Each structure stands twice: as C-alpha cells, then as structure tokens.
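hey can u run this one w/ pyridoxal-5'-phosphate bound, need the structure tokens asap thx
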Amino acid sequence: MDAIKFQHQQIFVKRDDLLHPQFSGNKARKLAYFLDHDFPNITKLIGYGSAQANSFYSLASLAKLKNWSFDFYVNHISPYLIDNPCGNYQKSLSLGANIINLGKLHPKITCPTDVYIEQHVSKLNALYVPEGGRSHLAEYGIQVLGKEIADWVTQYQQDIKNSHNSLNSVKVFLPSGTGTTALFLKKYFITNQLAIDVVTAPTVGGDDYLLTQFAMLEENAVFYPTIWDLGKKYHYGKLYREFYDIWLEANKSGIRFELIYDPVGLLALKQYLLQQDNSTELIIYLHQGGLLGNESMLPRYQRKFGDKC
Ligand SMILES: *Cc1c(COP(=O)(O)O)cnc(C)c1O
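ok here u go:
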C-alpha cells in the first residue's frame, strides 16, 4: 500500500500492478485459481478476446508459468498492430502465445468467437477460459485480495489508535469493467463482517449495465458495491479530455496509472472527494495494473490532445 496525495488528500493505493513481473493486476487476481491449482491432464490453454487486451497477456503469462501451450482466438487484428507490435499483443507473442485470427481464417464466418470455439475447437487436454466467464472461479483470487486489504486496514487502525485521528469509515475505490472484482470484493467484506465500503464506476455501458452485470453473478443485492454516478456516460476505450487530464494529475503522485479503466475510477474518486468532508475517512484506491495497454493508448492520447507529459 502506498500513500499518495490526490486532490490535496491522503489516499492509499493498493498496488496490484506490482504483484508479479508478468502475472499481475486485475486479471492475475481473477486467474489466480488456475495458478494455484494443479491440472494434471492439461497441456493447453484456450482463450479469446481482443488482441490488445490485458487478459491476452495475463493468459499468456499463466500458460508460460504452467508450461502449457496457449491458443488465443481473435476475430480481428488491425494491420497497423501486426506491422507495429506493441503492448499486450507483442508481449503475449513473445511469451509464445499462438494467436488465431478467425477473421482471416474464415472471412465468411459471422458467429461470435466464443460460439466458434464452443463448436469447432477441440478441448482435449485443454483448459478453456471464456472471456467474461468462470466468474465463480474469479472469486477465489478476489477473496485473497480482500483479505490483504482487510489485514492492512486492521493494522493501520491499530497503528493510529493512540493518535488523535479517529476513523469513521473505510472505502475502497476501483473502476469496473464486468464488475466482477468490485462485486466479489464487497461480498468478501460483508461476509467477513468488515466495515469496508466498495465504490466503483463503470467503464462499459453505464450504471444500469453494471447493475445487470452484478445481478448475473449474485442475486443478493446486499453484496452489491456502491455505483458512483459520474453524471456522464462514457464509451469503453474512447478518448476523453477529462480522462487524459485526470491521468496526468494522478501520475504526479509518482505512480503510473493506466489509461482505459483508471480515469473512470479516479474521476469517481475526485468527485467524491470534492463533495464531502473526508477528514475522518480512510480511502484506498485499487490499482489494477494493465500498464502495458498504455503503450498504444498513450500515443493515441498524445496525438489527440498534445504531449503534456
Ligand atoms: C479487466 C480490468 C478491469 C475490470 O475488472 P472487472 O472485474 O471486469 O470489473 C479494471 N482494470 C484493469 C486494469 C483491468 O485489466
């Protein structure tokens, strides 16, 4: 946990970006189950998604650590990326990932990648990790994260017991994609009777969509994190001036943040800090890694809004 100043306030940052040189961040937490368990008959990992995705690199790292071969299916790779490999794509290939471009193999195919894999790809001795799926297995790694945060909070509360500062509440802020991490984190805190709030904001599809995502994983709304309403709907992966600005501001702390999810989490945090008196709150921001994606996102931002780094 690192202490930083953000909006003139002390914020603690949980550094999941530093978990492991190759296997770190949010996807490593969600895939921890596979790293920690033995799969005696498995020799191959199968996944799919975007050629630039953090999950591509995390799956490639997992396969490498487990000594499995790795087939990753995509429906498209931009010619620019093929000629100028960078970020998650380049690193995954260097770890030995075998990328299969369905768009090129079967130009006429119209079914989604996951349907294609279900129907046409042999799973013999293979472990198939669907893109958003396997949610019950993701809970395993998020519980470990929850415990790390809770243990740190307990220690911190002990340490400041005799000082004049008393804490009224503890909040963890994080941006959501599928919302899996935020939900299982909140569920862990509630289940273990820990008074730690979880506040999140959507990078995909808005508040209603995020609620639907929670509902798919968990019926009981008691376990749902607080959704911070940013007051504006953003589109996943698009470039926004306020995203770039808050990213530049947060980087002044000395910690590098990422450019797709973090701007949303940081904007929610900033709005929150501006609206209330937080002097008696302990606020934690969860840094979920994904920094390799900056290799392609940062040049896009610099082209669009100029280089202010
Ligand atoms: C995948 C990812 C997220 C989103 O996690 P969800 O559990 O899908 O909400 C957030 N930040 C980073 C860096 C990620 O790679």
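The first strand starts at residue 2 and ends at 6. anyway lmk if its weird
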